[in-house]
Amino acid sequence: MTRRIGLFGLLGSGNLGNDGSLDAVLGFLEERHPDAVVDFMCMGAEKVRECYGLPAIPLQWYYAKERSGATTIPLKVLGKGIDAVRTARWVARHDVVIVPGMGVLEASLPLRAWGFPYALLLLCASGRLFRTKVALVTVGSNLIKKRLTRLVFTTAARLAHYRSYRDAFSKDSLRRMGVDTSRDEVYPDLVFALPAPDHPAAAPGSVGVGVMAYYGGNDDRGRAGEIHSRYVNTLKRFVRWLVDEGRSVRLFVGDQVDQEVLQEIMADVRAHRPDLAPSRVTAPRVSSLDDLMREMAAVDTVVATRYHNVLCALKLGKPTLSLGYARKNEVLMAGLGLAEFCQPADALDFSLLVKQFTELERQREKLVRAMAERNEATARELHRQFDVLSEVISLH
To answer: Of the candidates 310, 311, 124, 324, which has an alpha carbon nearest to the alpha carbon of residue 214?
Structure first.
C-alpha cells in the first residue's frame, strides 16, 4: 500500500543542520519506502522544490505573502487563523508526517510562542484530529522558562503520535516540563546517518573556525548587543592568534545569517595583518551540509559554535572545541569524549580558548581513536531508529 508521507519544519530556510537532518530522512525513505508519496510543509518551500523536485507549501501564510508588502499586525493575526486551516487540510492528506530532527522543542535562541511553536502545535493537533501519525524523530528539547512558549511546546509534544530525542538531556527536559516520556527513546542526531564525503588528507596544522550570528539566548534579549560584541571580538582575536602561530584558517558558517559575522572576521584579519597571504585565511562557500563536511575534512582541528558544525567535525573525527550556545553542545561533546573542550558562547575567554586549543591538539591521537569507536556505535543506534520509524510508517 502506498503511504502518503509529509515532511514538516524549518527546512530549506538556510540552516545547514536542519537540511542535513532532512537529507538523512529522505535517504531512509528512498531506501526503505521507495513507493511513498512525499511532500513538504516548510519554511523554505521554494528552495525545497528546487533542490528535491518535490511538492512543497510554505509553513506560514504571512511570511509567504511578505514579499508583496503585507507587513501589518492585523495581517499577522489573520495569518494565524489561515494557518490553522492550511495546516489541517495539509495534514489530512497524509498517513504520516515526519518532523526530521532539529531542535524543534527548544528555545535556546530567541523564539516567540506564536512563531514556530504555534506551527508545531497546529501540526500535532491536526494529526490527532485526522488520525494522521505525527512523528517527532530524534528532536532536541531544553527547559523553557517562558510560560507561554513552554505550554505551546509541551501541548504539541503530548499530541504527537511518536517522539524520540537526539540526547538524554532533551528527553529529560521534556519530562521535567510535565510530559510523560517513559515510552520515548533516545537516538543519535540524524545527521550522523549521512555518509562522510571522500576527501584528501587534511593540511597539517590547519584550523576550521565555525562562526555564528550569535546574540544570546531567549532570555538574553536585553543584552544581546553586548553578548554579540564579546563573541565576535574574541573570535577575531583568536583567528589573529592562529595566523600568528603559522596556522591556515578556514571560516565556516552553519546558516546563511552567519555570513555577516564571517565577513567581519575576514575584514578584521586583513586590516590587522595586511601582509598575510590570502590563502592563509579563507571562507569557502557552502550550500549544504555535504559541502560543509567536504570543506571541513580539509582541516586538522575545528573550533565551532553552531551545533551541527560541531557535529560534522566530530563525525569526521576532527579534534573539536565547542563554543556552545546551548546545553546540547556540551552533551554532544561529552558523548564523543571531549567534555573538557567546551566554552559558553555568551562568555568567551580568550586565554582559556588558547589553553583549551593547545591541549586539544596535544591529545589528538587519543581523541581521534575515541571518536572513531563512538561513530561506529552511533551508526548502529541510528539503524535501530530507522527500524522503529519504518514500523510507524507501515502500521495502519
So the answer is: 324
Task: Please write down the HEC assignment for all residues of the chain.
Answer: CCCEEEEEECCCCCEHHHHHHHHHHHHHHHHHCCCCEEEEEECCHHHHHHHHCCCEEECCHHHHHHHHCCCCHHHHHHHHHHHHHHHHHHHHCCCEEEEECCCCECCCCCCCCCCHHHHHHHHHHHHHHHCCEEEEEEECECCCCCHHHHHHHHHHHHHCCEEEECCHHHHHHHHHCCCCCCCCEECCCHHHHCCCCCCCCCCCCCEEEECCCCCCCCCCHHHHHHHHHHHHHHHHHHHHHHHHCCCCEEEECCEHHHHHHHHHHHHHHHHHCCCCCHHHEECCCCCCHHHHHHHHCCCCEEEECCHHHHHHHHHCCCCEEEEECCHHHHHHHHHCCCCCCEEEHHHCCHHHHHHHHHHHHHCHHHHHHHHHHHHHHHHHHHHHHHHHHHHHHHCC
Instruction: Give 180-226 pLDDT, tens digit per residue.
Output: 999 999 999 999 999 888 777 788 999 999 999 999 877 777 888 99
123 in a structural domain? yes
pTM of this prediction? 0.89
In a domain, 195, yes or no: no
Find the helix packing angle between 224-244 and 350-362, rounded to 10°.
50
- Number of compact structural domains in the chain: 2
Shared domain check, 215 and 117:
no
Residues spanned by the domain of 333: 207-376
In a domain, 293, yes or no: yes
CATH of the domain at 339: 3.40.50.2000
